[in-house]
Amino acid sequence: MRSMRAVLARPTVALLAGAGLVLAGPGAARASDTVEIPASTEGGISATVEFRRAVVPQPYNPDPNASSGDRQCQLRYHQYWATPGCGGFELGVRLHNVRSQPGYLAGLSSAGGYFTAYADTARTFGCLRPDGSFDHNTSFVVRTEQQPLSPVYYEPDSNWLLGQFRTYPDRDFGPPFFVNFPAVEVSCPEGTTATQYGLKVTNVKVAINDPNVFGSTTWSTPGPFYA
Questions:
Q1: How does DSSP assign 159-187, residue by residue?
Q2: What average pLDDT does the segment 61-81 reach?
Q3: Is the omega angle on the peptide bond into residue 59 within 30 degrees of 0, that is, cis?
Q4: The model's pTM
Q5: What is the DSSP track for the chain?
Q6: pLDDT per residue over 36-50, tens digit each?
Q7: Which residue, of 84, 91, 177, 219, has the greatest Cβ tally within 10 A?
Q8: Could you give the angle at the alpha carbon of 127 between the alpha carbons of 125 and 128, nearest 5°?
Q9: Which residue has the higher pLDDT, 83 or 7?
Q10: In angstroms, what is the C-alpha Rg of the chain?
């Protein structure tokens, strides 16, 4: 008989209570998808959010201690993307109309520190039969609720982003994030192979609390995004 165990992480996150909460409607579900989120007020800052570079390990045989190879789960120094053994995804963000904000025009610095991002995730696991078909009777789902996304280096720093906007006046910029998932134990009957069947990401939020330039704003999209 099969036995399966998974650690179910449900982090509780206190989002910034912003003056603006902007929402995007459901978008098409693709492994790489882009959603446009309008500004919360006339003349405000809108955002483009991109779900990209998802890694869904198939077969699934992670090594929680490996820092290289196909089973890698440990991030190496300055690695800001998902590992092949444990999987994950990236979230790209571009902010629009920043240069028209009064604080930007006045030359103010940001007081908001780093942008933050959160998302709900659902990973489906199970076993492949010898013919390669997925045995849905073995499937189970590992979920997180409003999991914090990791920053890509210093790039979500709001003042670094302001510097980019001022240095390159013809381009828009925004904070990038990523997730590298922890390993999950998947036990399968003899003759079958553990696999991650898929990944679903929903309720994505990107936030900052900055009274000077970016405002107290949360850009939000329900998704879903699939990989």
A1: HHHHHHHHH-TT--B---EEEEPPP-B--
A2: 97
A3: yes
A4: 0.85
A5: ----B-------------SEEEE-------SSEEEEE--SSTT--EEEEEEEEEE--SS---BTT-SSSTTB-SPPTT--S--TTT-EEEEEEEEESGGGSHHHHTTPPPS--B-EEEEEEEEEEEEE-TTS-EEEEEEEEEEEEEEEPEE-TTTTBHHHHHHHHHH-TT--B---EEEEPPP-B----TT-EEEEEEEEEEEEEEEEEETTTTEEEEEEE---EE-
A6: 999 989 999 999 999
A7: 219
A8: 125
A9: 83
A10: 20
Backbone angles phi, psi at 212, to 5 degrees: -90, -50
**Amino acid occupying residue 95:** L
Describe the strand order of the beta sheet including 150-151 as a list of residue ranges: 33-37, 46-55, 88-96, 177-180, 150-151
| C-alpha closest to that of 32 among 86, 89, 94, 73 | 89
Angle at 78 between CA 77 and CA 81, to 5 degrees: 110
Q: Is pLDDT of 5 > 70?
A: no
Give the number of other Cβ atoms within 10 Å of residue 1's Cβ: 4
Taking only the tens place, the pLDDT of each residue in 74-100 is 999 999 999 999 999 999 999 999 999
Q: Which two tokens stand for residue 158?
A: 């709001």
Taking the C-alpha atoms of residue 47 and residue 50, their distance in angstroms, rounded to an integer, is 10
